[in-house]
Please model this.
Amino acid sequence: QVQLVESGGGLVQAGGSLRLSCAASGRTFSSYTMAWFRQAPGKEREFLASISWSGISTYYADSVKGRFTISRDNAKNTLYLQMNSLKPEDTAVYYCAADRAPFTRATTEYNYDYWGQGTQVTVSS
Model:
């Protein structure tokens, strides 16, 4: 089992950048496929990006491709999401998630076994 805690959210102006972190507890972080999702008010949870246990393979939603970068540091048990060129429509609660299965480009929340509590990102126009 793994416990996940996100941080790094906040208020930023359009065009700005933020880096989210997701700290994982447990000794098996390096064996999990990891992902970032977000959920805006009144909307369904949306897949953003995923990364294999090694960090070699990544997959992005079209809505963030070229602007967001997912990465991980297994030595620090931490997942990251670098967000650049932020837009007001990026405003949401951002969640990290862990999947015990090997990397498959899964994009639905039901594929992921463990979730953090979320961190709020607000982009002002």
User: Anything to note?
Assistant: The longest strand covers residues 92-99.
